[in-house]
Amino acid sequence: MAVSELSAVLAKAAVVWVVVDDRPWPLWVAVDDGTLYAVTGGGEQPLPQLPAQVELVLRTKDTHERVGPVPARAERINPAGEDWARVTDILLAARQAVPTEELRDRWAADSVVWAIIADPETPVPQANRDQPSDARPPQPTAATTARWRPKHLTALRRPRSGN
Predict the structure, then answer these.
(1) What is the mean pLDDT of the chain?
(2) In the structure, what pLDDT confidence band is assigned to residue 103 with cuts at 50, 70 and 90?
(3) Could you tell me the CA-to-CA distances from 43 to 77, 109, 110, 117 in Å, in that order?
(4) What is the C-alpha separation between 141 and 156, in angstroms, rounded?
(5) Is the dihedral of CA 103, 98, 115, 21 positive or negative?
(6) Assign residue 42 a region: left if phi > 0, alpha if psi is -120 to 50, beta otherwise?
(7) Which domains does the chain have, with CATH numbers?
(8) Quick one: CA dihedral 82, 87, 88, 90, positive or negative?
(9) Residue 32: pLDDT over 60
(10) 115, 75 in Cβ contact below 8 A?
(11) Which residues pair with 57 in a beta bridge?
(12) Segments of 8-160 assigned E as strands
């Protein structure tokens, strides 16, 4: 995959999968100039401590093809640092709900803000349409609705009038 193609996929990313200890973790991100920003912990999305080097798995917006793994580096943003206000402004702007200033204070006290920078120079394997999705089958369960259906799901049959 070319550098420009990877940059285009990163620019449109809203959710990526970060691979930590061979397990992919879904991660909501805000994107700014090719850098992904995320908030974890403290009532936000769960994610283990990120190592300095991680792998990202993305999906293209138009075809939903898998892109990756893409090597990246993760950096923790310090609440006392000079980038804190700029990065949290980017995260607050991408937030669906109406953010408040208290949210930024809660992030500083209880959460971790990450900057994840993908390495666009490293070749990324092309998606293979025949490659399995890595989806796992659902766990067996005793829950079933095979015998009972709610009334709103069954069609009401009305007798036809014999006109």
Answers:
(1) 77
(2) confident
(3) 18, 11, 8, 24
(4) 31
(5) positive
(6) left
(7) 3-123 (2.30.110.10)
(8) positive
(9) yes
(10) yes
(11) 17
(12) 15-20, 23-28, 30-32, 35-40, 53-59, 66-77, 112-118
Q: Tokens for 120? A: 């666009």
Tell me the pTM.
Answer: 0.70
Does residue 126 register a pLDDT over 70? no
pLDDT at 124 over 60: no
d(CA 149, CA 128): 40
The beta-carbon contacts of 99-108 under 8 Å, at least 24 apart in sequence, are: 106/42, 106/43, 107/39, 107/42, 107/44, 107/79, 108/79, 108/84
Sign, CA torsion 6/7/9/15: positive
- Does the pLDDT value for residue 50 go beyond 80? yes
Torsion of CA 82, 85, 89, 92, to 10 degrees: 120
